[in-house]
Write a structure and sequence with these properties.
With about 375 residues, the chain is of the alpha/beta class. It has one domain: Vaccinia Virus protein VP39 (Rossmann fold, 3-Layer(aba) Sandwich). Helices cover about 40% and strands about 15% of the residues. It contains 10 helices and 7 strands. It has a 7-stranded mixed sheet, sandwiched between helices. The longest helix has 25 residues. The termini are far apart.
């Protein structure tokens, strides 16, 4: 019998401030299998990230700022309001969400200044959202003391409604909406053509597996956009930054998946993991193509695409420091989902062996690998 779908609560990043916590491993935006760069404290980038990676992140931030300055109609949005509401979806527990909110606040203030809007007495409200199991206590321990906004937590899945109707002026989400609400049921059904036996993802899987993931993502995006359309004010903006699907099977993301699968296979041979346990484990993750995202927006019909921008990052240079960093970030993001299915005992040996395999491989030095790519999608509510 296939195991039940991975519970949504297991998708939260590692809480607390321990060695493997996300708060201590968030200088790269949650790796979440495919995302290798991020904000560092006060906007700096750790040594492990290259200057080109920092440039890619700066490009994304610049693009979002440009969208606010050019596309946000502050006169209309604020004519009957004394506050501006921001919501960050999938905030996790690292400091990244505060940098995002700070940047948005600064951009809105600049736009008001350009439009001659007096913001004396004007206030900003930031809602930080993630699943109820997210370590919000740790998140708020990192809250800047000099923040120019009010802040509150909103626990719950962003695949459904979170806020009152027409109450949010700007939504933001970074590296979150590639996570599915659940593993596609067909890939865990032994009687289905899409049963994903012996694999944890759709890499090198039959087309039926890929199609099951694609359909689940389309359903999730329909629900996501439906909820945001209800919650966003007319002419409000939504900025979504996410990894997009590689165009070939030779890429860093797929290579990491295959190495992790090989560790599980070794554990089956050693008797520490059963075949049935592996067969019933699949990762609830899907990187869409830009065409799939555009199609989802078109089907909903309540948003217009103001901008789509693609960012490519070069493959990392091979070094033990970078390998260690990648494993730490992956563990911070993935330990929960693995532990929920296999239990606590597997975690230490799994990631130790995984690190050995990454070190032994040419994964970080193969220049023939397709660069990892992200996309910033800026939408306006009609």
């Amino acid at each position: 019998m296939a195991a039940a779908n991975i519970p949504q609560k297991s998708l939260a990043m590692n809480g607390g401030d321990g060695v493997y916590s996300y708060s201590r491993n968030s200088f790269m935006q949650v790796i979440r299998f495919g995302s290798f760069f991020s904000f560092m404290s006060r906007g700096s980038i750790r040594d492990e990230s290259s200057d080109m990676q920092k440039k890619g992140l700066d490009n994304a931030r610049t693009t979002m700022a440009k969208g606010i300055l050019e596309k946000l109609d502050v006169k209309r949005l604020l004519e009957n309001s004394h506050s501006f509401v921001i919501a960050d979806l999938g905030c996790s527990v690292g400091p990244n969400t505060f940098f995002v909110v700070q940047n948005i606040v600064e951009n809105v203030i600049e736009k008001c200044s350009r439009c001659g809007i007096d913001i004396e007495g004007f206030e900003f409200q930031a809602f930080l959202n993630d699943r109820a199991s997210n370590d919000f206590n740790m998140l708020f321990r990192l809250l800047p003391s000099d923040k120019p906004y009010h802040v509150a937590a909103v626990p719950g899945s962003f695949h459904g409604r979170l806020f009152p109707k027409a109450s949010v002026h700007l939504f933001h989400s970074s590296y979150s909406i590639q996570w599915l609400s659940q593993v596609p049921s067909q890939v865990q059904d032994e009687t289905s053509p899409a049963w994903n036996r012996g694999r944890i993802y759709m890499v090198d899987a039959p087309m039926a597996v890929t199609e099951a993931y694609r359909k689940q993502y389309a359903k999730d995006m329909e629900e996501f956009l439906d909820a945001r359309a209800a919650e966003l004010v007319s002419d409000g903006l939504m900025a979504l930054l996410l990894p997009i699907a590689p165009t070939s099977s030779k890429c860093m993301f797929y290579g990491m998946v295959q190495l992790l699968e090989s560790v599980f296979t070794e554990f089956i041979t050693a008797g520490s993991v059963s075949e049935a346990m592996l067969d019933s484990f699949n990762v609830p993750y899907y990187s869409p193509t830009s065409a799939e995202l555009e199609a989802a927006v078109a089907r909903d019909g309540r948003f217009i695409i103001e901008n789509i921008e693609r960012f490519e990052r070069p493959n990392l240079e091979r070094s033990q420091g970078k390998i260690d960093a990648i494993i730490m970030h992956l563990r911070a993001g993935w330990e929960g989902v693995i532990k929920a299915h296999f239990g606590d005992d597997i975690i230490e040996p799994l990631f130790e062996r995984f690190k050995e395999k990454v070190s032994e491989s040419f994964l970080l030095s193969d220049q023939g690998f397709e660069p990892t790519a992200e996309m910033l999608l800026l939408l306006k509510r009609l």
